[in-house]
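fyi for ur records
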Amino acid sequence: MNTITRLSAACAATLSVAALGADMPLGSSPVGGPYAGAVARTVRAILEYSRWPQPRSALVLCVAGNAQHGAQIGNQRLSDGRQVVRRNVAAQPAALAGCDAVYIGSIPLAAQRQLTSAVRGRGVLTIAENDPGSSSEAMFTLTFKPAGLSFRMNIDAVSRSGLRVDPRVLRVAKSGG
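which gave:
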């Protein structure tokens, strides 16, 4: 099996393992509450299926605000070998320099919008943890339910980002934005 075939198979496995086609089962998670493991797997899968305008050997995932369910995100390897490096930052636009992705924790909606606006068109992937109305203008918003985790994808935000997101993610995301 050649490298491209192995990589494609690994990406396909990641997408199905991450349960992006259905609600993510919770399972037990000692660090970060019951959703932490599901959030980590979902964020990793979204990163796996996103392509930046310029190739990166590592991805800097910035976590802004109180990430209630983000204890396990970052500091892992993607299937293509790239390292995901977590960096905790202040929930302020100026703190986002050098971020390839931003995970927005529980902060007021106005602050979420400031963050998403600050990186719009700069090739930065955005994921909001606490935005049930999908009003933050983040590319992805997580949806927490008693039995699982799902997400919504804001197609307008993705198209303005400069990133390419695999169409399989679109097919499994709940309709949003």
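The first strand starts at residue 24 and ends at 25. thats all i got for now
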